[in-house]
Design goal:
48% helix; 31 strands; binds adenosine-5'-diphosphate; 31 helices; elongated; disordered N terminus; 8-stranded mixed sheet; binds magnesium ion; alpha+beta; 16% strand
């Protein structure tokens, strides 16, 4: 987004007036009030046209930041509030862009802020001009020349803690791009008297204090100095320390700056040696010594100091000592040597110190110039900065003030010349008729001072060169004669005795009416100061020094170049340098900064009107304004003028289509501004009187307010309307929605009400129908009932006669039939399962069916048993037959029986057919084997048992050896008569044989077997089927067995638990075998 260009003007938000040219009415009072008002609002800068007035704020203001630099960069001079940067920018830009050399003239009294202003200008230019390593080095060198010069040329005075005691003009040179190339510094009139004497409350030049405070012990030793200020006569003690100034630190800064500027180490050292020598010179003291001729001759009191100075400077001690005692005057090839008295010796000493120091200062300036001078020969553009004292009007004004004021007079001259010239040029450029401008031209005063034939300076020189006694008084007399008629010269004793009775004018004084006011000068010292005399013996002694720098400072001491012509006087020197300066300035475009000191206390916020008034007078600021306003007070290009005021006229507002000039013409006509108040230039409008401008400004302000109101009105209207439209739209939407909602609600209500009504009506209708139907039904029922009863009555009446005879029996039979039928039908549904062991049977419903019920149960059981049996295979049948047989034989007789029921009867436990072991046995038997099982055969003799294979075939019972399978005995079944066993839970049984049979010879067998029940049963069944006789099975706990010839009783007894759960058998005696059953 393009940055919005905000057109601003100096006229915006002005405090007082930013440009004194616009001051109305113009008087000293309004001028000061305006300055004060602005000063109180921290506006320290005010313009007079392009001149900047700067009032020293004595505190740091936040108006020099890099942001401010940016603000003022490339802006038009009148665009922002007055600032030194605006002036700097204007100067720099016209230098860079229009190829015009510039000079910035800074004037003002001591402490008014000149030096600060010059630094601000330099720093601004440094900030906005080109960048780059080389450029930066040049900038740095230019800027760092300041601390060096300030150390040697500045001192604390009562007016300013850092007062420049010399005039300085610095040319900064730029290339065509505006990059700095280098610079040249010129210095004017160093206040060298300060070296030997300082007024009360002031100090010598900074460098002395800096050296003593900041130098290392080593350096001090080398320079033969002591740190204590009080050791040195030239250093005033009452203000050796300055508040807020660190001399030691400044010393380091200065040495550093010297290095940056390009001083070699040995050069810097030489400089300090000279400084030391000057300090030590002050300590040389003289005493009078009577001579033969009756005159006093001065002698050095203590030669120690002299010795040290000579060591330091490499001067022959005797030469210097002599130079302090004698003075050689050469006249017409004749050398006359006269002795010096003590006063003359002191004068000589001080003159030497002053000269040494001031020449050192000039050397420094030259040395710096050598470093900072531009290295190229290309054409340069130049910006000169002149930091020189303004008018000085003290109680006692002497030669220095005269010189200074002369310089200012010249500057005013150049100002007038250049301003008027510029003004005139502008008028010509703008094609405006030039008219006579009433202003004071100070050329006449300059002439009074500098005229070569009868100017004051010329008179002074004449006096100084004149042979015979020359005093200040004779000089004044001369002036009284020569200048008496001059309008600006005043003296009590002048030829035309205008001032004879003027008591404000002492006899030893003359007064000059400078452009900035009258100044009274004391003539005392004029001659001396103008002569600036240094005895030749001293300069020669200095030239003889071994110290290269000192030697170079006194070239006139070289006897080879002896020059009888007097050196130029201080006055003529100054005049010459001012002339050069003026010539220099005249080629440049001047920019003025007028510095004003608001108070004498170096304090912020204090504005002493009397003091300011004084300065305004001698700076000739009102004069400035007048000159500036001589023709037209204000001018402005047409475009910005039209832009600024176009709202004042209907035709030009808001847009003017034609050329700006016609626009302005229309505008001014419309506003009925008197024709004589303005003129139309080629590109600018010229306004004669500030009043007109302010009228325009007022109208503009008013109009702006109206416009603001208008804009506000339209904006408010627009805002209200848009707001209203929005509200309306919203309202419609809301209303629509609300209506919809309300209708919905209403519809729902109606619907639900309709439903309720409907349901009530339906309910009512339904109930009505129901009632009718019920009634109808009841009627029908009633009819049916009545009909039934009626029929009943009819039938009964008809059948009564038949019914009475058989009805009871019939009903009984029928009921019985019904019950039985029902019983069977129910039984059918309640049948238990077909399992023969299922004991369930439905309960009996009627008592009279009890027997039927039991019978039925029995029949059903038999039937299901049969059903069950019918499922059996033949083999199963056989097994069950056997099991049945066993049951019949043993059930409830033998305790062992129940445990056998679950065991299937297998018969052939030993698989004789399959086992090869029994092959022989198998071969021996041809019949079918029914039982093949191992049994224990009880030994008849002792009751012990042996295992035997027990075999039962269809016809025989066989016993075989278990191991060999050899048949031991064979008994045909017909010979078996009986089987005996106990009733208990044991497997013992006895097989009785027929008496007399072959098998019976050994007696009956007594066995024990795990399958007793099965074996007995099978034996019984086989015997029965073979012999058709039932085998006798005796179950008794005591039976007899035939063993060979004896009959032995086998007795079963309960409970002998000797062998655990196995029954044991024991032969008790011949007749008893006891079996213990557990
Ligand atoms: N623009 C300024 N802002 C702040 N202080 C200033 C300004 N100008 C001057 N001063 C103060 O005033 C003192 C004297 O200024 P200086 O420039 O040395 O005066 P001059 O050179 O006119 O004798 C400075 O040391 C500084 O403290
Ligand atoms: Mg200064």
């Amino acid at each position: 987004m393009a940055k919005m260009e905000v057109k601003t003007s100096l006229l915006d938000n002005m405090i007082g007036v930013g440009d004194m040219v616009l001051l109305e009415p113009l008087s000293e009072e309004t001028f000061i009030n305006n300055l004060k008002k602005r000063f109180d609002h921290n506006e320290i800068y005010t313009y007079i046209g392009s001149v900047v007035i700067s009032v020293n704020p004595y505190r740091s203001l936040p108006i020099y930041s890099p942001e401010k630099v940016e603000d003022y960069r490339n802006r038009n001079f009148y665009e922002l509030s007055p600032h030194i940067f605006a002036l700097s920018d204007e100067a720099y830009r016209s230098l860079r862009d229009q190829d015009k050399d510039q000079c910035i003239l800074i004037t003002g009294e001591s402490g008014a802020g000149k030096t600060e202003a010059s630094k601000l200008v330099m720093s601004y230019v440094a900030a906005v001009c080109g960048k780059g390593a080389e450029v930066n080095q040049v900038k740095e060198q230019l800027l760092q020349s300041n601390p060096v010069l300030e150390a040697f040329g500045n001192a604390k005075t009562v007016r300013n803690d850092n007062s420049s005691r010399f005039g300085k003009y610095m040319d900064i040179e730029f290339d065509f791009k505006g990059d700095p190339l280098g610079g040249v510094i010129s210095n004017y009139l160093l206040e060298k008297s300060r070296v030997v004497k300082q007024p009360r409350g002031e100090r010598n030049f900074h460098v002395f204090y800096q050296l003593l405070s900041g130098a290392s012990e080593e350096l001090l030793n080398k320079l033969k100095l002591e740190r204590d200020f009080s050791r040195y006569n030239y250093l005033s003690l009452d203000s050796a320390k300055v508040n807020g100034v660190d001399d030691a630190a400044n010393f380091r800064t200065v040495r550093n700056a010297m290095q940056i500027v390009g001083f070699m180490d040995h050069e810097a050292e030489s400089v300090l040696e000279v400084v030391a020598a000057v300090l030590k010179l002050g300590n040389i003291e003289f005493k009078p010594e009577s001579r033969v001729n009756g005159l006093d001759e001065s002698k050095i009191k203590d030669k120690n100091e002299l010795k040290e100075i000579c060591e330091l400077t490499g001067i022959d001690q005797s030469v210097l000592e002599r130079a302090f005692s004698f003075r050689t005057v050469e006249a017409k090839q004749e050398k006359v040597s006269t002795t010096l008295n003590v006063a003359q010796a002191y004068y000589a000493r001080d003159a030497l110190a002053k000269n040494l120091y001031s020449r050192l200062f000039s050397w420094l300036v030259n040395r710096i110039n050598e470093s900072i001078k531009a290295q190229t020969k290309v054409r340069k553009k130049v910006m000169g900065v002149l930091d020189i004292y303004g008018f000085e009007i003290f109680e006692d004004n002497s030669f220095e003030q005269f010189i200074i004021n002369y310089c200012n007079e010249k500057l005013q001259q150049i100002f007038i010349e250049l301003t008027l010239k510029e003004e005139q040029e502008e008028y010509i450029r703008e094609d405006i008729e030039w008219m006579h401008i009433d202003y004071f031209n100070n050329a006449i005063i300059c002439d009074l001072i500098e005229n070569n034939t009868n100017g004051i300076l010329a008179m002074l020189d004449e006096e100084c060169l004149r042979p015979g006694t020359v005093t200040d008084e004779t000089f004044l007399e001369k002036l009284n004669q020569v200048c008496a008629t001059h309008q600006h010269f005043e003296s009590r004793m002048s030829k035309c005795s205008r001032f004879l009775n003027d008591t404000t004018l002492p006899h030893s004084c003359f007064r000059i009416q400078h452009y900035a006011g009258k100044v009274l000068y004391q003539v005392e010292g004029f001659v001396d100061k103008n002569n600036d005399l240094l005895y030749r013996d001293l300069s020669q002694a200095m030239w003889k020094a071994g110290h290269a720098l000192i030697k170079s400072l006194f070239p006139e001491g070289n006897p080879a170049k002896i020059n009888l012509k007097r050196p130029p006087t201080a006055g003529s020197q100054f005049k010459a340098s001012v002339a050069t300066l003026m010539k220099n300035l005249q080629t440049k475009n001047p920019n003025y900064i007028r510095c004003i000191k608001p108070n004498d206390k170096k304090a912020a916020h204090i504005f002493n009107e009397a003091l300011v008034c004084h300065q305004i007078r001698y700076l000739g600021l009102l004069e400035n304004v007048r000159v500036r306003r001589a023709g037209y007070a204000f001018r402005q290009a047409y475009e910005p003028c039209l832009e600024r005021y176009k709202m004042l006229c209907k035709q030009t507002w808001p847009h003017w289509k034609g050329p700006a000039r016609t626009g302005v013409e229309v505008l001014f006509n419309e506003l009925e501004i008197p024709v004589e108040e303005y003129s139309f230039g080629r590109s600018k409008i010229f306004i004669r009187n500030p009043r007109t401008l302010f009228k325009l400004e007022d109208l503009r302000k008013q109009r702006l307010e109206d416009l603001a109101t208008l804009i506000q009105k339209i904006y408010r209207g627009w805002k209200c309307r848009t707001h209203f439209l929005l509200m309306r739209k919203s309202q419609i939407v809301i209303a629509a929605w609300y209506r919809r909602y309300a209708q919905q609600k209403r519809y729902q209500q109606i619907k639900s009400s309709a439903l309720v009504i409907q349901s009530y009506i339906r309910g009512w209708k339904a109930r009505k129908i129901l009632r009718e139907l019920k009634h109808q039904k009841r009627c029908e029922e009633a009819v049916t009932t009545i009909a039934a009863y009626w029929h009943g009555t009819q039938v009964r009446r008809e059948y009564r006669k038949f019914f009475r005879a058989n009805a009871g029996k019939k009903i009984y039979e029928f009921t019985l039939q019904r019950i039985v039928q029902k019983y069977f039908l129910e039984m059918k549904n309640k049948m238990p399962s077909l399992s023969p062991i299922d004991k369930n049977w439905p309960s009996r419903p009627y008592l009279f069916l009890d027997s039927t019920h039991k019978e039925l149960k029995r029949i059903f059981h038999l039937w299901r048993c049969k059903k069950y049996r019918d499922q059996f295979t033949d083999q199963q049948k056989l097994i069950y037959e056997e099991k049945l047989e066993a049951s019949e034989l043993f059930k409830d007789k033998k305790a062992l029986y129940p445990s056998s029921v679950g065991q299937p009867f297998q018969g052939a436990y030993l698989e004789i057919n399959k086992n090869p072991k029994y092959k022989k046995l198998k071969d021996a038997i041809e019949e079918k084997i029914i039982i093949a099982e191992v049994v224990n055969k009880i030994n008849r003799a002792n009751g012990k048992s042996t295992s035997r294979i027990f075999l039962l075939t269809n016809n025989n019972l066989l016993l075989a050896d278990q191991k060999s399978g050899q048949i031991k005995s064979e008994v045909p079944l017909v010979d078996v008569t009986k089987v005996s066993m106990s009733s208990q839970n044991d497997g013992f049984f006895a097989v009785h044989l027929k008496e007399g049979s072959e098998a019976a010879s050994k007696g009956d067998f007594l066995f024990s077997s795990d399958h007793l029940i099965e074996m007995a049963t099978k034996l019984y069944r086989t015997t029965l089927s073979q012999t058709k006789q039932k085998l006798n099975i005796e179950i008794s706990d005591e039976f007899l067995v035939q063993f060979r010839q004896d009959k032995v009783c086998v007795k079963f007894i309960q409970g002998n638990q000797k062998n655990g759960s196995v029954p044991t058998c024991k032969r008790k005696n011949n007749r008893l075998l006891e079996v213990a059953v557990p």
